[in-house]
Amino acid sequence: MNKIRNFLPEQYDMDQLYSIKHNYLSEQFSDYKNIFEKIENVVLNNDFTLGREVDEFEQNISSMIGSKYCIAVGSGTDAIRLSLLALGIKSEDEVITTPYTFHATVGAIATAGAKPVFVDCDEDFNIDVEKIRAAITEKTKAIVPVHWAGRPVDPQSFQKISSEFSIPIVEDACHAILASRSGINAGTIGQIGCFSLHPLKNLNAWGDGGFICTDDKAIEEKLRLMRNHGLESRDSCVLFGYNSRLDTLQAVVANHLLLKLPNLTKKRIKNAHMLDKMLGKIKQISLPLRSKEINEVFHLYCFQAKNRDELVEFLISNGIDAKKHYPIPMHLQKAATYLGYKKGDFPIAERLADSTISLPVHEFVSPEQIEKMGNLVRSFYYG
Ligand SMILES: Cc1ncc(COP(=O)(O)O)c(C=O)c1O
Questions:
Q1: Alpha-carbon span 35 to 39, nearest angstrom
Q2: Which of 27, 116, 181, 367 has its CA 20 to 30 Å from the CA of residue 13?
Q3: CA-to-CA distance for 377 and 20, rounded, in angstroms?
């Protein structure tokens, strides 16, 4: 029971044992004293909830992502859940998504009251747009594609299906800040784009946080009310809502890091391309297709590998924080039993879950470390 209550500190302690790590927060915030100074201003100004830092964060994001509005909320999960609720999703409604994602995507759909309906992905880790058509029913009220690992789905085909069936797209862009495809930014492909500021995301704060991008004025107004108890003023409540405000102190941290984000992202991309060159030559490995049209931001660097489990063990024993993101697809989770899916329903997602490995490529991984990882993978297969 204790473990269920609070297992994360143990997990973060383990992360520190590796020489090449996924978790790099202490390096990321080595200039934390500058942030402390800004936090001091929050205290001195009595600006504890929402306030100037959150306004500034929302404006910064709107101009960076290119959306008319940004609404900062308590987490990426809340961003998705509140967006679905703002669209009027209710029980009995169906929401289509991918089984190959982090649990939060599906949790947000289920806790908004809707039924998650899964559609298999394709070899590039994202939901297969062609298979979505067959899953659409009159109960389908939204499609939630995930830009897995920071690799955006194809904007045109999602916009086409959305307008053909009049079903809104709510993007799970939690991995994909600053990613784009065919010149369109992740988070602006559909009606609503949802992002996370979780400490392990590309734009990360010191705790939970998230935000929503939209061009739709009515949705924006509703979300602003919903995140703050439905209050239009101190004493007037126009709808009963939630408390899901972005914490003001997290907004300070995010504003600070936002200035560095373009450079941090460039470093990730550079590292990923360097690793591509090394791993692309190994025939037991399959990389997703890269293309000039797809500007991936490599929140995760994922690939399929033969004998994945043994490779992960081998890398871990060599000090590399190799991970399986994630070994159990959503339709086979205990939580999904009530949906009635079974093994074999989504063969590609199942294969990805069995064969995918991810390696750290964040900005604090050096070229020497990339080379070390590439060489270790090669030596696993060829000795
Ligand atoms: C794909 C995906 N969607 C949604 C979330 C939820 O974000 P948060 O942890 O901020 O609630 C996460 C991450 O944690 C995620 O990886």
A1: 6
A2: 367
A3: 14
User: Radius of gyration (Cα) for the chain, nearest Å?
Assistant: 21
Domains identified in the chain and CATH numbers: 2-21+260-382 (3.90.1150.10), 32-258 (3.40.640.10)
Residue nearest to atom 7 of ligand 1 (CA): 76
d(CA 129, CA 165): 13
- Note the pLDDT of residue 2: 59
Enter the tokens of residue 175: 């991995």
What is the Å distance from ligand 1's center to 77 Cα? 6
- For 155-181, the pLDDT digits (tens) are 999 999 999 999 999 999 999 999 999
Detail the DSSP E strand segments found in 179-228.
Answer: 180-181, 184-185, 192-196, 210-214
The token duo for 29 is 């915030």
pLDDT digits (tens, 9 = 90+) for 10-61: 877 888 889 999 888 889 999 999 999 999 999 999 989 999 999 999 999 9
- Nearest-5° Cα angle at 167, 166 to 169: 130
Q: Which residues contact 116 (CB under 8 A, 6 or more apart)?
A: 94, 95, 97, 106, 109, 110, 330, 336, 339
What number does the ligand 1 atom closest to the CA of 148 have?
1
Q: Tokens standing for 19? A: 């020489």
Rounded CA-CA distance 107/96 in Å is: 13
Which amino acids bring their CB within 6 angstroms of ligand 1?
75-77, 101-102, 104-105, 146, 172, 174-175, 196, 198, 208, 210
Angle between helices 261-279 and 248-258 (to 10 degrees): 60
pLDDT digits (tens, 9 = 90+) for 188-240: 999 999 999 999 999 999 999 999 999 999 999 999 999 999 999 999 999 99
